Amino acid sequence: MAFAGDEDVEFPILCETCLGENPYVRMTKEPRGKECKTCNRAFTIFRWLPGRGMRYKKTEICVTCAKLKNVCQTCILDLEHGLPVQVRDTALSIQDEVPKEESNRRDYLAKMANSLEVMGDQPDFSGKAQPAGREMLKRMARKDPYYKRNRPHICSFFVKGQCTRGNECPYRHEMPEADPELAKQNIVDRYHGTNDPVAKRMLARTRSTDNKLDVPEDKSIIS
């Protein structure tokens, strides 16, 4: 049975931001190039440059895992709203059904992969049963691509005052945000919607302003 890395994938599942603004973007494709960071199965890796002056990006999770959560394979944000999974699932009262134990997760994903391939079934994240939550997501959603998220990462040597490459350095010469929580991000937590510091900050600020907050720039998201 075809599953995850064995899928015949011609193009990744990406959000507009990660894909970039270049309409002629070229991608490299490496079947079974790496393990999916959420299910540990080998999957097809895509790599591309989203625009001039940006950093190369690649897919981080397999197509099956992306479909199960309706997220981008690279930034792991919800495809409809551009928000963290934890924000979406909290607003819509969605429970994470993907087992975290490896043996149970393997069986669950095999079953869901077969369902996706044969039946075309895909989890419903429309929020039809949660109109208040869906309205909240509409207010928080990023309506336009945020291409600055594709910029090079900050140069760690510059932060330490040790970078000697000057203008030739491929990384950004600026200081990071003084928020230690944002440095604790990891893809597995972001995917499952648990302990995501970006999501926690957004939800806290939204609650404090009675759900009237404009979504902050997501420059803190690492992908």
TrEMBL record:
Keywords assigned by UniProt, alphabetized: Metal-binding, mRNA processing, mRNA splicing, Nucleus, RNA-binding, Spliceosome, Zinc, Zinc-finger
Subcellular location as annotated: Nucleus
Domain C3H1-type span(s) in chain numbering: 149-176
InterPro entries found in the cross-reference section: Cwc2/Slt11 (IPR039171), STL11/RBM22-like_N (IPR048995), Torus (IPR032297), Znf_CCCH (IPR000571), Znf_CCCH_sf (IPR036855)
Segments forming C3H1-type zinc fingers: 149-176
Family matches, as Pfam families: STL11_N (PF21369), Torus (PF16131)
Source taxon at top rank: Eukaryota
GO MF term list: pre-mRNA binding; U6 snRNA binding; zinc ion binding
GO BP: mRNA processing; RNA splicing
Broad class of the protein's primary localization: nucleus
Entry's Gene Ontology cellular component terms: Prp19 complex; U2-type catalytic step 1 spliceosome; U2-type catalytic step 2 spliceosome
Function, in words: Involved in pre-mRNA splicing. Facilitates the cooperative formation of U2/U6 helix II in association with stem II in the spliceosome. Binds to RNA.
Family: Belongs to the SLT11 family.
Protein name: Pre-mRNA-splicing factor SLT11
Source organism: Coemansia thaxteri
Upper lineage: Eukaryota, Fungi, Fungi incertae sedis, Zoopagomycota, Kickxellomycotina
